């Protein structure tokens, strides 16, 4: 069992920046991928970025690639999402999730955090 916990959400004006962190506890040795997802009101949840601790590879969705970055902070043992040049359309609940199988968006993301709200206005 793995428990991801998000932190760092909040409110920011358009053009501003926010950093989100995800700390995972439990059977972290079994994690194959950590992902950041978001869901805006009335919209489907979408994958934003993902990081593989297996080979340190990263992926950023094309819709945010020029503005967002994902990284692992070894000192804090977190997976962080840095969001720059934020737009009102980035407003959503952001979730961190752990995948024990692969880094594919289509595979099972078994463990989810409670989410952290990001509001850009």
Describe, in plain words, how this protein is organized in 3D:
- By secondary structure, the chain is mainly beta.
- It has strands spanning 2-7, 10-12, 18-26, 33-39, 46-51, 58-60, 68-73, 78-83, 92-99, 111-112, 116-120.
- Strands 2, 4, 5, 6, 9, 10 and 11 form a seven-stranded mixed sheet that branches. A four-stranded antiparallel sheet has the order 1-3-8-7, with no helix packed on it.
- Strand 5 (46-51) and strand 6 (58-60) form a beta hairpin.
- The mean pLDDT is 95.
Structural features:
121 residues; seven-stranded mixed beta sheet; four-stranded antiparallel beta sheet; mainly beta
Euclidean distance between termini CA atoms: 37 Å
Query: What's the average pLDDT?
Result: 95
Order of helices and strands: EEEEEEEEEEE
Biggest sheet statistics: 7 strands, mixed
What overall geometry do the principal axes of the alpha carbons give? globular
Strand content: over 45%
The number of strands is 11
Q: Note the total helix count.
A: 0
Q: Percent range for helical residues?
A: under 10%
Structural class determined from secondary elements: mainly beta
- Low-pLDDT regions: none
Radius of gyration: 13 Å
Short précis:
With 121 residues, this protein is mainly beta.
Q: Which SSEs are present, and which pair or pack?
A:
Elements: E1 2-7, E2 10-12, E3 18-26, E4 33-39, E5 46-51, E6 58-60, E7 68-73, E8 78-83, E9 92-99, E10 111-112, E11 116-120
Parallel strand pairs: 2-11
Antiparallel strand pairs: 1-3, 3-8, 4-5, 4-9, 5-6, 7-8, 9-10, 9-11
